[in-house]
């Protein structure tokens, strides 16, 4: 073949190669290219307030009353690795390609952009403040937006759905502690949805309800999907009564003109110790959390009885077996023995137990125990009966209050996890 024909064939091959369409980049590849080209123009001042990590974009103030607030994981971003939890501070991509344009438009429309995120991995040692701060800084620069950022690191009053982060934002970051309730919103993925995929939690929805903002899922806000988000599928403390009869039965009184023993019956968090504090303050309180063992409880109870004092057994006392030794002690000394049974729902018990951790506006007699002991109480529970030897049984109706102050009341009626 001549050199002329060889050159001609090569040119023909080049044209054919040029005509082959380039492979379309995936969303992930496009985002990675943008990250490489993106200049780190947004810088942050980072600090901590108790258990809240706080990021303020330098040169910006939170002035607008229109608040567009967001969860971070699986709302603004998702993992690049495809794993449930991020492997490091760089394991992320925007949740959807529409996130950037939507959030930029909100900023152009005059919204202050805020992140409220639970980052319990810091408290558990799985990640660090530095890693989360780096991630949020990179996200802000990817979005080209100044984002005020707050994240909770512990199981306390600052963790969503509790209001701690929101209150700190209004009081310490925003130029004035006001917001446009009509236009402001919170967007998060933890909405308690049952299908098509069950949400791991409903904490984002409850957070929005607690702070009084309109709620959206990322599917609703970024993808314009129609979703029916229920606000009635979970326990609502606002439905609890604030007045009524103390006992279900007529004729039951808290005090007696006879020496007596009262045995409280109720799950952890049911309000037994609060009841004792409010109505049985003159009784000697016998509590296993304090005395540690049953023999010590019985010994302390007998000593008080011998001193002609009234005694209240402030334990959970769920079963006939757990109550029989105290009843036998009362019978031995020929004093009256009554049972006060705090019959509350399991959901209310969870709520009251969470109050021990979240509500700092009142005195709590015990620390939060968590769900397992409460589940166990309800599994083991046997209602007290006269056949056990009780002279009288009073079923205590749950009545919310009294409250120490407005903050105590607001915290009590807030949604908890």
TrEMBL record:
Residues 10-26 have a biased composition (Basic and acidic residues). Pfam families: AAA_33, PNK3P. Residues 1-42 are annotated as: Disordered. GO terms for molecular function: ATP-dependent polydeoxyribonucleotide 5'-hydroxyl-kinase activity; double-stranded DNA binding; polynucleotide 3'-phosphatase activity. It comes from the Eukaryota. One of its GO terms (biological process) is DNA repair. Transmembrane segments: none annotated. SUPFAM superfamilies: HAD-like, P-loop containing nucleoside triphosphate hydrolases. NCBIfam families: DNA-3'-Pase, HAD-SF-IIIA. This is DNA 3'-phosphatase.
């Amino acid at each position: 073949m001549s050199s002329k024909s060889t050159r001609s064939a090569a040119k023909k091959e080049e044209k054919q190669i040029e005509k082959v369409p380039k492979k379309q980049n995936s969303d992930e590849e496009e985002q990675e290219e943008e990250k490489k080209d993106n200049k780190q123009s947004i810088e942050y001042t980072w600090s901590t307030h108790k258990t809240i990590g706080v990021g303020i974009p330098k040169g910006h103030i939170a002035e607008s009353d229109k608040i567009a607030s967001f969860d971070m994981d699986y709302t603004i971003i998702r993992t690049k690795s495809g794993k449930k939890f991020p492997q490091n501070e760089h394991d992320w991509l925007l949740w959807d390609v529409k996130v950037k344009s939507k959030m930029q438009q909100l900023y152009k429309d005059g919204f202050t952009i805020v992140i409220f995120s639970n980052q319990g991995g810091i408290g558990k040692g799985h990640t660090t403040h530095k890693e989360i701060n780096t991630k949020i800084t990179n996200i802000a620069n990817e979005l080209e937006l100044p984002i005020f950022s707050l994240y909770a690191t512990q199981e306390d009053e600052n963790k969503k759905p509790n209001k701690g982060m929101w209150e700190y934002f209004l009081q310490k970051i925003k130029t004035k502690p006001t917001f446009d309730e009509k236009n402001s919103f919170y967007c998060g993925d933890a909405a308690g949805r049952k299908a098509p995929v069950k949400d791991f939690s409903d904490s984002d929805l409850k957070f929005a309800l607690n702070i009084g903002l309109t709620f959206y899922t990322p599917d609703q806000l970024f993808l314009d999907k129609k979703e029916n988000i229920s606000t009635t599928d979970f326990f609502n403390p606002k439905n609890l009564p604030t007045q009524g009869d103390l006992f279900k039965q007529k004729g039951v009184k808290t005090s007696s003109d006879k020496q007596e023993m009262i045995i409280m019956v109720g799950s952890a968090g049911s309000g037994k110790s609060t009841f004792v504090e409010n109505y049985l303050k003159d009784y000697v309180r016998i509590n296993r959390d304090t005395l540690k063992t049953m023999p010590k409880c019985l010994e302390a109870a007998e000593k008080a009885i011998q001193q002609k004092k009234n005694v209240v057994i402030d334990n959970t006392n769920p079963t006939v077996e757990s109550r029989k030794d105290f009843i036998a002690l009362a019978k031995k000394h020929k004093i009256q023995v009554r049972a006060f049974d705090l019959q509350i729902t399991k959901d209310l018990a969870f709520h009251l137990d969470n109050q021990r951790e979240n509500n700092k506006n009142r005195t709590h007699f015990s620390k939060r125990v968590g769900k397992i002991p409460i589940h166990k109480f309800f599994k083991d529970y046997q209602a007290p009966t006269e056949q056990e030897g009780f002279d009288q049984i009073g079923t205590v109706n749950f009545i919310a209050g009294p409250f120490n102050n407005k903050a105590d009341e607001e915290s009590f009626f807030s949604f908890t996890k």
